[in-house]
Amino acid sequence: MQVSARGEYAVRIAVTLATGHPRTISASSLAAAQALPRKFAEVILGDLRRAHLVDSVRGVEGGYRLARDPGDVSVGEVLRAVDGPLSEVRGRRPEETSYEGAAVNLPRLWVAARAAVRSVFDEVSLAQAATGEFPVRIAELTAADDAWMPR
Question: Could you write out the DSSP letters of every residue in the chain?
Answer without folding.
Answer: ----HHHHHHHHHHHHHHHHTTS-B-HHHHHHHTT--HHHHHHHHHHHHHTTSEEEE-STT-EEEESS-GGG-BHHHHHHHHH--S--BTTB-GGG----GGGTTHHHHHHHHHHHHHHHHTT-BHHHHHHT---HHHHHHHHSTTTTS--
